[in-house]
Amino acid sequence: TRENGHGLRTPIVAVLGHVDHGKTSLLDKIRGSTVIEGEAGAITQHIGATAIPLDVVSKVAGSLIDPSDFDLPGLLFIDTPGHHSFTTLRSRGGALADIAILVVDVNDGFQPQTLEAINILKQSQTPFVVAANKIDTVPGWKPNEDAPVQQTKEAQSDRASSMLDEQLYEIIGELSDEGFSADMYWRVQDFRGNIGVVPVSAETGEGIPDLLTVLMGLAQRYMKEDMAIDVTGPGAGTVLEVKEEKGFGTTLDVVLYDGTIREDETIVVGGLDEPIVTDVRAILKPRPLAEIRTEDRFEKVEEIAAASGVKIAAPGLDDAMAGAPVRVVRDRDIEEVIAEVRAELSEIEVETQEQGVVVKADTLGSLEAIANAMDEAEIPIMRAEVGDVAPRDISVASTAGEDKHKTILAFNVDVLADAEQQAEDSDVKLFESGVIYRLIEEYEEYVEELER
Ligand code: GTP
Ligand code: MG
Asked: How does 22-31 read in b/e, with b if 16+ C-beta sit within 10 Å?
């Protein structure tokens, strides 16, 4: 970043995994804060971003890391609530995350959302490591708080140690079923061709030094060139969430992956119908080591550089979409920037037919992923949009010619109360799920029943 004089930005690390496998706890442990305790029912309601500077990384990693080996400024972690599809968020020409941690509960192994995450990591060619979490739950395990994993493993009984091995080999086997060659991380030489499995406990901190060491090494070794950006150029980012914020109106939670953004600058944001052109009223920053979603008082800043998670307050953001691009205009021609945003949006545009179902999804990227899956399943789409299911969606679906098309497939979005009532009244069938293939399966079963 600018502050330390390097032209290297912080790598963006996505934390993915099945519900309850320990994503938030893992970040929490790294951060040493207690975000999880502030969460309703310990479920993450929103995406948060946490910057862990290099000095903290090396403090946690202890003897495993020599900070002088690194010149990347640290790591920016993005937590993903189990119900959200961070995996489908994009940046210019690729995945938003530079690296990912796939969290897998050693007791549960691979679950539907683990597989969905794997598929999207595969498609987007995002390098990742597997955090095999909850090793402290192995029967007979004797925790050694915050210890490197090999050290604590050696201190266990033979029985506990080999039970853990069994669970780890199961995960390695499941990875291999998905086409990845994987091994315990300490045996992996080339982390691009092989997936390293890092046994950890978000509860006791065991293995966390290893996880940070592997991530930092992966980023430094293979990603340094991608991290070299024009740190003072006009900012580029992706909308994570569109949120109402007291005193600010509609705001955007944005991950800035390139350049800078300044107060009062004109930005272009992907909107439901047209790109939105507006002026930044305030840039709100979570304090270092804090999460956007737990911060009740934001820190106003004049300027911020990539990579960072920021909240942007500006007028006219109501139609902004999660997953859409954000661009700072600065000294460029505004029409060019609008065209750029439009071009990026059209890349994601879903092909629609005159007859078909209505699809609603939480982000542009997930809409694209669903459309691809539906194309494969040969289910035609009449309308596809980002956003909650609203009464007008029901109206659109009810005009379909065939009963099997009088349906709405809703992915990770809410159904507004009056929409639900209207669906009942007009015989429009609603399908809701946070897993794409379930949505499609349920729809296909429904069609089979109709045709019986
Ligand atoms: P969602 O955000 O809902 O998808 O869940 P998550 O993946 O963020 O899981 P979370 O961190 O909320 O953890 C789920 C539960 O598992 C909580 O009750 C945690 O206390 C527990 N847990 C997480 N990691 C560990 C671990 O390493 N050991 C033990 N024993 N429990 C853990
Ligand atoms: Mg969580």
From this structure: bbbbbbbbbb
Angle at CA of residue 39, ends 38 and 41, nearest 5°: 125
Contact residues for 372 (Cβ-Cβ < 8 A; gap 6+):
none
Distance of CA 402 to the CA centre of its chain: 36
Spatial contact of 114 and 105, defined as CB atoms under 8 Å apart: no
The reply to whether ipTM tops 0.90 is yes
Model confidence band, residue 315 (pLDDT cutoffs 50, 70, 90): very high
Full-model pTM: 0.82
Is the Cβ–Cβ distance between 27 and 91 less than 8 Å?
A: no
Contact 324, 345 (CB under 8 A): yes
Distance 43 CA to ligand 1 centre (A): 9
Residue 82 in contact with ligand 1 by CB distance below 6 A: yes
Q: Atom of ligand 1 at shortest distance to CA of 103?
A: 7
Residue whose entry in the numeric block shows the structure tokens 């209207």: 422
* CA 317/CA 282 separation, integer angstroms: 13
Please work out, in degrees rounded to the nearest 5, the angle formed at the alpha carbon of residue 49 by the alpha carbons of 47 and 50. Answer: 145
| pLDDT tens-place string over residues 411-421 | 999 999 999 99
The radius of gyration of the chain from alpha carbons, rounded to an integer in Å, stands at 23
**Whole-Å CA distances, 267 to 36, 96, 274, 280, 338:** 34, 19, 14, 7, 9
User: Which residues lie near ion ligand 2 (Cβ < 5 Å)?
Assistant: 23-24, 44
The number of beta carbons lying within 10 Å of the beta carbon of residue 129 is 24
Q: Is the pLDDT of residue 344 over 90?
A: no
Ligand 1 neighbourhood includes 43 CB (under 6 angstroms):
yes
